[in-house]
Design goal:
- The complex is a heterotrimer of chains A (118), B (149) and C (530).
- The relative contact order of chain A is 0.06.
- The radius of gyration of chain A is 21 Å and the shape is extended.
- With 118 residues, chain A is mainly alpha-helical.
- Chain A has a single domain, classed as Methane Monooxygenase Hydroxylase, Chain G, domain 1.
- In chain B, helix 1 runs antiparallel to helix 2 and helix 2 runs antiparallel to helix 3.
- Chain B has a domain of 96 residues: Orthogonal Bundle (Helix Hairpins), CATH 1.10.287.3510.
- Chain B is 62% helix and 0% strand.
- Chain B contains 4 helices and no strands.
- Chain B is mainly alpha-helical.
- Chain C has 530 residues and is mostly helical.
- Chain C has one domain.
- Helices cover 74% and strands 1% of the residues of chain C.
- Chain C has 21 helices and 3 strands.
- Chain C has a 3-stranded antiparallel sheet with strand order 2-1-3.
- In chain C, strand 1 and strand 2 form a beta hairpin.
- The longest helix of chain C is centred in the N-terminal third of the chain and has 32 residues.
- Classes of the chains: A mainly alpha (118), B mainly alpha (149), C mainly alpha (530).
- At the B-C interface, helix 1, helix 2 and helix 3 of B face helix 6, helix 7 and helix 10 of C.
């Protein structure tokens, strides 16, 4: 079975190029007002240097629950992505409705304040 | 028995084992989170069987059902986490035996021996990682700021 | 042939309204608006039901007589439950409560219209998941939390069993479409028959939880006791509706090939369910606990009708009558039960609603305008649940027992079993009258001990109680049209589907995806090729 692997290399090149471009953009356009907190290694909002067995803040769990749901719903996009171009038009519309519902859920979560840290 | 059927059998056996272990775990464990995980394990057993059958019949229906099972399991996990956090706040324990308020009028509550407690944290000598690298010098206003983030 | 979007328009309307209420509820603070909006949702769903032309749909959706009946029943009960719970005590969570209620109703309707395992599973979960939230929102004390936890954990265990049953069904036939499954199991090989038997046991276990049949009933009394009257009303009708419609679709129709193994199990379940439910109800002091056992017992009567339709085989007249009896019974049971809980939710002491039977002592004679009305409606519902003629419950019991007595099945000696079943059912009904009449006796023939307060803001619940009482009397006096509707509900589309345009498209797409160099293949194909 002959399969073109050119898209894979295109993707790799695109990813590498995008990474370089993003770093460059950040380097060129950043306003340059560093603070010690900003200069710490990024550790998802926690102190990078501390004991490993520390309790997580319970507020992480709210975000974790929201993430879990949204993350798994993405699953439905895979079969949709396979068929939507060759199926009838409403297949595309159905996927869009699904995404719109996810967006509604996101707005609900946002308004309920689970993305606020306090 | 050809290879295809043997493959199917292997997957079905693993699926049944997962389902059975999950069922036994649900019935025998007392920690709410572990009970929930046991049910998730049962669902994984079901998913594995469905995918195996789907491959055997060369049909997409089983995989479709598995996709929906995973999505529903995620919703249930979200509800379970919220529920368990709420229960923990009220009783300060995840032991399911503590919840016996609802029962028949003349039935005594089920008294189980308490779960074996881990010895207090101070006595456990876990290996500790040495903080590596240089401690950044942080002015006090920055740390104050971070407490309010 | 109409598109699924058109056929499922009522469900879609309900879901859209629910989503609107959830999101808008996060923005605006109001209480009554959401109830009215949800009622509007039910109304527009009903309008959509009327506008729908019933045609062959094909594929995963089937709008046969049963689907139409159950969908109407779900819509009506949803509206009644909405009014009953129009004053949920969880402060500030009215939009969530109302939205979840809409979703459960949409779930029942979806389950009723689906004849495909994936869609059926989604329908059942759309009933379960909002129910967990409703149970959580009902009250915020320890008992309520315990109730929500018990229901949640046992419910996910039941869905896992149901799904394992589905996987056996799929394994036996290689299709998720129930009609195809039924077709392939009609002349099963030995191996797939064993798979079908395992599937049947697991599905009965999973759905037995939803209808609170006996070995799976343990949650019901605890959960009803711990939660509010409105939630108890929901739990006693909505999961039962979904569970029975799924039982009929899966066990009765699709598992036709394993019929000889199925009906004895259902028969035993029916006997155990009625007997245990009624026997336990005799000893209860807590009202919701008593009604929970009563609802278990009624599930037993409905299982008689299901056993009848299973034993005599799909398509025969007796099976038809059995199915019709099931749907008639579910209707009269639901009317009386929802009415009872609605009436009870109007009464309270302090912030609490009434808990024990004793609190109803002398209710009609405690004065006021509302309390006597509530007492008389509760009395009427008790008579109806006990099956005393001229009320609705009598006709339900009559239909069930008559169908059991008319069984003359293909198997030798089957008639004797069903005569025994009918006798056990009648004895049970007599026992059940004892505890229903005890409530009436406590209310009407004892001096008032204290005066339960009529709670504020329960106008909707009062209206539901009165409406249900009128309906119970109306069904009792003119049962003809209700029998006719129930017979129509026994029409079930069981033949295998025509090949679907959508399914064919899906297969083509999959092929195109595998073909390298095709238009789709560039983007998608390499993944499968590598």
């Amino acid at each position: 079975m002959q399969v073109s692997v050119l898209p894979v290399f295109l993707l790799m090149a695109f990813v590498a190029g995008l990474a370089v471009v993003l770093i460059l953009v950040g380097y060129v356009f950043n306003p340059g007002r560093p603070t010690p907190v900003k200069r710490m290694p990024y550790e998802s909002g926690m102190d990078p240097l501390h004991d490993t067995r520390r309790r997580f803040d319970v507020r992480y769990y709210l975000v974790a629950i929201a993430f879990l749901v949204f993350d798994v719903e993405i699953l439905f996009l895979y079969p949709w992505a396979v068929v939507f171009r060759s199926g009838p038009a409403w297949v595309f519309g159905g996927g869009m409705v699904f995404l719109a519902l996810l967006a509604l859920g996101f707005i609900y979560d946002w308004k309920k304040g689970i993305f606020h840290w306090r | 028995m050809n290879a295809e059927v043997a493959l199917l059998h292997n997957y079905l056996i693993v699926g049944a084992l997962l389902f059975g272990i999950g069922l036994v775990g649900f019935l025998s464990r007392r920690n709410l989170i572990v009970m929930f995980l046991a049910v998730e394990m049962m669902l994984q057993g079901v998913s594995l069987s469905l995918v195996a059958w789907g491959r055997y019949y060369n049909d997409f229906g089983g995989q479709m059902l598995v996709l929906f099972i995973i999505a529903v399991a995620a919703c249930e996990a979200a509800i379970a986490l919220a529920l368990i956090v709420m229960l923990y706040r009220r009783r300060n324990s995840l032991d399911v035996v503590l919840w016996h308020e609802l029962r028949e009028d003349n039935q005594p509550p089920v008294e189980e021996p308490p779960l074996s407690q881990l010895p207090p944290e101070a006595k456990v000598e876990w290996p500790r990682l040495v903080p590596a690298g240089r401690q950044p010098e942080i002015p006090p206003e920055e740390t104050d700021y971070r407490h309010h983030v | 042939m109409s598109a699924p979007v058109v056929v499922l328009a009522p469900e879609i309307i309900l879901v859209v309204v629910a989503a609107t209420i959830y999101v808008a509820g996060a923005f605006a603070r109001s209480r009554d608006v959401w109830v009215w909006l949800a009622l509007g949702g039910f109304l527009s769903a009903a309008v959509a039901m009327v506008m729908l032309s019933v045609g062959a749909v094909g594929g995963p959706i089937s709008v046969d007589g049963m689907a139409i009946y159950v969908r109407w029943l779900a819509l009506g009960l949803g509206a009644l439950l909405l009014l009953t719970s129009s004053r949920p005590s969880g402060q500030g969570s009215t939009p969530e409560y109302v939205g979840s209620l809409l979703l459960t109703v949409a779930g029942v309707m979806l389950a009723a219209a689906s004849r495909e395992l994936v869609l059926l599973f989604m329908g059942l979960e759309l009933v379960s998941i909002p129910t967990y939230i409703l149970l959580y929102l009902g009250r915020r004390d320890a008992a309520s939390q315990e109730a929500a936890t018990k229901y949640f954990f046992l419910s996910i265990l039941a869905s896992a069993m149901l799904l394992y049953g589905f996987s056996f069904l799929y394994g036996a036939t290689g299709s998720t479409h129930l009609a195809v499954i039924g077709q392939r199991l009609a002349s099963p090989e030995a191996g797939s028959l064993w798979l079908a038997r395992a599937a049947m046991v697991l599905v009965l276990a999973g759905l037995g939880f939803k209808i609170a049949a006996v070995p799976f009933h343990f949650y019901a009394p605890d959960v009803y006791q711990g939660t509010t009257h409105a939630n108890a009303a929901l739990l006693s009708v909505v999961p039962k509706l979904a569970g029975f419609v799924a039982l009929v679709r899966v066990v009765d129709v699709a598992l036709e090939g394993a019929r000889d193994d199925a009906w004895p199990i259902v028969l035993i379940l029916a006997v155990a369910t009625m007997t245990v439910g009624n026997a336990m109800a005799l000893w209860q002091q807590n009202l919701r606990r008593l009604l929970a056992y009563s609802s278990i017992a009624h599930a037993g009567y409905m299982l008689i009708a299901l056993a009848v339709s299973m034993a005599t085989g799909f398509g025969t007249t007796t099976a038809w009558e059995g199915m019709a009896a099931l749907w008639l019974y579910l209707l009269v049971y639901a009317v009386a039960t929802v009415g009872t809980f609605a009436a009870l939710s109007c009464l309270g002491r302090g912030a609490e609603s009434v808990q024990s039977v004793e609190e109803l002592t002398g209710l009609p004679w405690t004065g006021g305008r509302v309390r006597p009305v509530l007492a008389w409606t509760i009395g009427l519902f008790m008579f109806s649940l006990a099956g005393i003629p001229p009320l609705a419950g009598f006709w339900g019991k009559l239909a069930v027992f008559a169908s059991a007595l008319s069984v003359e099945g293909p198997v030798e000696g089957i008639r004797g079993w069903f005569i025994v079943l009918a006798v056990v059912g009648v004895l049970n009904a007599a026992v059940a009258a004892a505890y229903y009449l005890r409530i009436i006796g406590v209310m009407f023939f004892r001096r008032p001990l204290g005066v339960p307060r009529v709670r504020e803001g329960t106008g909707g619940a009062l209206a539901v109680a009165i409406f249900s009482a009128v309906l119970a009397v109306a069904i009792g006096l003119g049962p003809g049209i209700w029998f006719r509707d129930a017979r129509r509900a026994a029409i079930i589309e069981a033949e295998a589907p025509r090949p679907l345009p959508m399914a064919a498209g899906g297969v083509q797409t999959a092929d195109a995806g595998l073909r390298p160099g095709g238009e789709v293949g560039q983007g998608v194909g390499f993944g499968s090729g590598l």
